[in-house]
Design brief:
globular, 7-stranded parallel sheet, alpha/beta, 44% helix, 8 helices
Length: 257
C-alpha cells in the first residue's frame, strides 16, 4: 500500500472515524488508510477494534484503536476527541461522525430510554465531537468533517420516525456547521446512504429486498459504496463542497413512487 506509485489522496492526513469497528465505519477506516491516512478506529468493542486495526496494518496502512461509547455522555465525546488527537500525533485532519443506532419501532412503542439513546448517540455525540475538534481545525485553517446521515431523513417511513429525525437533525447541523466553520477552511458535508447491507442490517434483507429491486441500481448498497464517497469528500477533490449531503442510495429516492 505505502509503496504504491500513484498519489494517495489522503497521504499525510489523520482521520478519526467513529463507529468504525464494523459496517460502514470499518469500510471508511480501511479506505482512508488505503489512501494514505493515519486512522483512529473508534468503537465500543475492543476485539472488533483490534481486528480492524490489524486488517489495516496488514495491508500496509497506519491505524490505532481508541475505545469510546459516544452514547454515554457529552464528556465521553470530549474524551474521544482528546484521546483520538493523541493517538494521531496531536492533530485530527478529518472527522467522520459515523457511529449511530437504528431501532425500528412505532412511535407509541418507543420508551424514554430508547429515545434518549438514539438522540445521545446520533446527535449529541457528533455535536460535542465537532465542538471539541472544529475550533482547532479552524485555527489551522484546514479540516474536514463528514457526517453520516440517512436517506430515511428525507422520507416518511413507518417505524422509522425517531431514527429519521435524528439523521435529519445531523444533516441540518451539517449545513449550520458549514456556515459556521467554512470561512475558516473547514469543509463539512454529509453522506446519506440508502439501504446498505451490513452485519447490522442483514436481518432486514428480506424486508427491504423488494424496495431495493425497484431502484435503478437494482441492488443493495455496500459499505464500500459509502466509503468511496467518504474518500471523495475527505480529499481535495471535494474542495468546493460545503454543507452538502451526498445521497448514495442507488437511485431509490429519484424513482420512489
Amino acid at each position: 500500500m505505502n509503496g504504491c506509485s500513484l498519489a494517495q489522496r489522503l497521504d499525510g492526513r489523520t482521520a478519526l472515524v467513529t463507529g468504525s469497528t464494523s459496517g460502514i465505519g470499518r469500510a471508511i477506516a480501511i479506505a482512508f488508510a488505503a489512501e494514505g491516512a493515519h486512522v483512529a478506529v473508534s468503537g465500543r468493542d475492543d476485539a472488533r477494534g483490534a481486528a480492524t486495526v490489524a486488517a489495516i496494518r496488514e495491508a500496509g496502512g497506519r491505524a490505532d484503536f481508541v475505545r469510546a461509547d459516544l452514547g454515554a455522555s457529552a464528556d465521553a465525546a470530549r474524551a474521544l476527541a482528546g484521546e483520538g488527537t493523541r493517538a494521531l500525533g496531536g492533530r485530527v485532519d478529518v472527522l467522520v461522525n459515523n457511529a449511530g443506532i437504528f431501532p425500528s419501532a412505532p412511535t407509541a412503542e418507543v420508551d424514554q430510554a430508547t429515545f434518549d439513546s438514539v438522540i445521545a448517540t446520533n446527535v449529541r455525540g457528533p455535536f460535542f465531537l465537532v465542538a471539541a475538534l472544529a475550533p482547532s481545525m479552524a485555527e489551522r485553517g484546514s479540516g474536514v468533517i463528514i457526517n453520516i446521515g440517512s436517506w430515511i431523513s428525507t422520507i416518511g417511513l413507518s417505524s422509522g420516525a425517531l431514527y429519521g429525525a435524528s439523521k435529519g437533525t445531523l444533516e441540518a447541523l451539517t449545513r449550520g456547521w458549514a456556515a459556521e466553520f467554512g470561512r475558516s477552511g473547514v469543509r463539512i458535508n454529509a453522506i446519506a446512504p440508502g439501504v446498505t447491507l451490513t452485519d447490522g442490517t442483514a436481518h432486514l434483507q428480506d424486508h427491504t429486498r423488494a424496495m431495493v429491486d425497484a431502484t435503478p441500481a437494482g441492488r443493495f448498497g455496500t459499505p464500500e459504496d459509502v466509503a468511496a464517497a467518504a474518500v471523495y469528500l475527505a480529499s481535495d477533490d471535494a474542495s468546493f463542497m460545503h454543507g452538502s449531503t451526498l445521497l448514495i442510495d442507488g437511485g431509490a429516492l429519484t424513482t420512489r413512487a
